[in-house]
Amino acid sequence: MDGLYQHGPSTVTEVLAFLADPPSYSAVRALLRTMEEKGLLLHSQEGARYVYAPVADRRSASRSALRQLVLTYFDGSVEATVAALLRDGGRVLPDELERLARLIDAARRAAQ
Questions:
Q1: Please, what is the Cα angle at 111 between 108 and 112, to 5 degrees?
Q2: Measured between alpha carbons, how far is 32 from 36 in angstroms, rounded to an integer?
Q3: How far is the C-alpha of 102 from the C-alpha of 3, rounded, in Å?
Q4: Is the pLDDT of residue 90 over 80?
Q5: CA-CA distance, 80 to 64, in Å (whole number)?
């Protein structure tokens, strides 16, 4: 998905070209087909080639994936998710901490 967001709509051959350690052509084709069946991608046909593109924009897809990750691995707890990121070797820069503090303050005000 990352490659399709970075490079735009792509064929199987193009996807293979931007993967660092690509599997076989047929494996990539099968993965793209599976992602399409799951509703993540659509394809259009250009001659004999299928061109694949994400269904959702990157921001929407990121939010959806993050929601699923929080539900699956942290029982839906935002606190547990953030705590794991901060405790488990996640290096947070001072300016990032400041931005996080502002986001937390805004969320706190919105919850009141």
A1: 95
A2: 6
A3: 32
A4: no
A5: 18
Residue 15 near residue 32, CB atoms below 8 Å:
yes
Q: Token match 């599976």: residue?
A: 34
Is the pTM higher than 0.90? The answer reads: no
The per-residue pLDDT for range 2-28, each reduced to its tens digit, is 999 999 999 999 999 999 999 999 999
Please state whether beta strands 41-46 and 49-54 pair in parallel, antiparallel, or not at all (unpaired).
antiparallel
Closest CA to 78 of 107, 110, 109, 112: 107
- Produce one character per residue of 53-91: b if its CB has 16 or more CB atoms within 10 Å, e if not: ebeeeeeeeeeeeeeeebeeeeeeeeeebeeeeeeeeee
Q: What is the DSSP code (8-state) at residue 54?
A: E
